Amino acid sequence: MRGLANLTNLPGLEVLVLENNPLLGNVDFAQFERMEKLWKLDLERIGMTRIANGLQRPLTELRRLDLSNNALTYVHVRMFRTFPKLEHLWLHGNRLYFLEADQVQTLLPALRSIVIDDNAWGCGHLATLGQTLRDRGIVIRHGECPASARAVHRVCCSDVTDVVDFRYLIEMGIRKEARFEQDLRELRSENEVLRQNLQQIQERLKQLAANFTQRDSPVTDDREDPESSELPSSSTSIEEYEDEEHTS
Predict the structure, then answer these.
(1) Where is the composition biased (Low complexity) (predicted)?
(2) Residue ranges of domains in the chain
(3) Distance in Å from the first CA to the final CA of the chain
(4) C-beta of residue 177 within 8 angstroms of C-beta of residue 162
């Protein structure tokens, strides 16, 4: 399978299993937006390297989400904010070295269990992560860890936490720089819109000022004054009256 064009308009679908389709790649959760009754979504082994969530409205019935055996390296629980009833999350078999879960109780209040083994965890981060999850009553499910390997919360990890933290900081720096560039582009776009609006306002003000000036300028009326036009006739009438008196 190469795409989901034929599956996006299934509002009555409750279970969707897409596992073992590595050509699907980075599927955006927005493609499932019309599946309002979906309660189980299986995206195991689809070649996903990052999580994309463009949902405009939540999938309120989704309770089980499987993203295992992909190539994810970083996850923030904010990426699942549109699944308010999510109870079980599978993330094992990826390349995860960082999972930000500080807001898990706020963003995923219904989460009951999470599977995170077989990843690239640093032991220091895993200890903090595990404590955060357990403090919120979330069960950390796991597979088997070899006796010779280091484990925290019964999940395999590596002691090279400095390397993990360094990789994390590099990735976060890239993400922050990308966000800064995006914010800058948006500000420039908004500035251009404001500039155009200002030009329109200035042109409108000039037009209003011109109309106001034209309205208040003196108006020349070429018509004769009625009173002045009547004077000659009145004068003539008086002279004629005097002549008549003199004759009589």
Answers:
(1) 229-238
(2) 5-172, 177-203
(3) 128
(4) no
Q: Which two tokens stand for residue 234?
A: 């009145």
CB atoms under 10 Å from CB of 183, counted, come to: 10
Q: Containing H/E element for 73?
A: none
What's 225's DSSP letter?
A: P
Reference 110, options 131, 82, 91, 132; nearest CA is 82
5-172 has which fold? 3.80.10
Q: How far apart are CA 144 and CA 141, in angstroms?
A: 10
Q: Minimal CA–CA distance to 30: which of 8, 50, 60?
A: 8
Output the six-digit token pair for 100. 């930000």
Token reading at 189: 């776009």
Label the pairing between strands 88-90 and 113-115: parallel
pLDDT tens column, 88-128: 999 999 999 889 888 899 999 999 999 999 999 988 889 99
pTM, two decimals, is 0.64
Cα–Cα distance between 78 and 126 in angstroms, integer?
19
SS3 17: strand
